[in-house]
Amino acid sequence: MTATQPLQGRTIMVTGAGYGIGREAALTYARAGATVLLLGRTQEALNDTYDLIEAEQLPQAAVLPFDLETSEETPYQQLAQLIEEHFGHLDGLLLNAGVLGQRTPIDNYHADTWLKVMQINVNGQFLLIKHLLPLLHKAAADASILFTSSSVGRTGRAYWGAYSVSKFATEGLMQVLAQELENTSNIRVNAINPGATRTTMRAAAYPVENPANVTAPSAIMPLYLHLMSPAAIGIHGQSLDAQGENAFLID
After folding, report:
1. Pick the catalytic residue: 19, 50, 163, 224?
2. Alpha helix locations (H) across the chain?
3. Active-site annotation holds for 163
4. 188 and 143 in contact (C-beta within 8 Å)?
5. How do 92-95 and 11-15 pair as beta strands?
6. How would you classify residue 225: left for phi > 0, otherwise alpha for psi between -120 and 50, otherwise beta?
7. How far apart, in whole angstroms, are the C-alpha atoms of residue 39 and residue 98?
8. pLDDT in tens, 54-81
9. What's the predicted TM-score (pTM) here?
């Protein structure tokens, strides 16, 4: 590990690694020396991220197609077994994958869409964590779990429906897990609210917004890298903003 490669020799999984913040985080972690496990639903998008990592001759990544809409527990068990067989452990987990659902009043919300959002944004995250925790406990030194939060997961907002509720649940899951692991392991648990960021989800939520006026994912990566690295030891159980007046400042 060096100052320029704080993740050298580490194995880190990024969910939703095919697009937006997930892709940028995967590249950031690979540039910092990590072997990145690219997990997502769309093989083609994951392959594109893999190719970007290969083009820079960074540590070889692994592509793991996986659908978090799956509610059966067996695929999650099999995923953990696969990672253990090939990598032995995990040093970090960025839970970035998520879906927006509908922007509509509750009385107009489609029940099947609501259940899908909650499965992908909450239940799938729980199942991943449950089965990957043993691999994080095997990290040689410290390990980091990062959830993805949102401002609408701290204060409810009209018409944000299941997405808002799922982010409230994400904040709660982070807090519960952080308390369970505090003083009992070397795993730290935190959440990042990325803020307004130029992604396909942002474009779907705000279709008339000019994307040129929205922060690029690369601009918020310093926080993602800091919290995944040993420099963040001691930061635990916090929900931090990547942008805005309450943005976490890195020394």
Report:
1. 163
2. 20-31, 43-55, 74-87, 111-118, 124-137, 161-181, 200-205, 221-228
3. yes
4. yes
5. parallel
6. alpha
7. 12
8. 999 999 999 999 999 999 999 999 999 9
9. 0.95
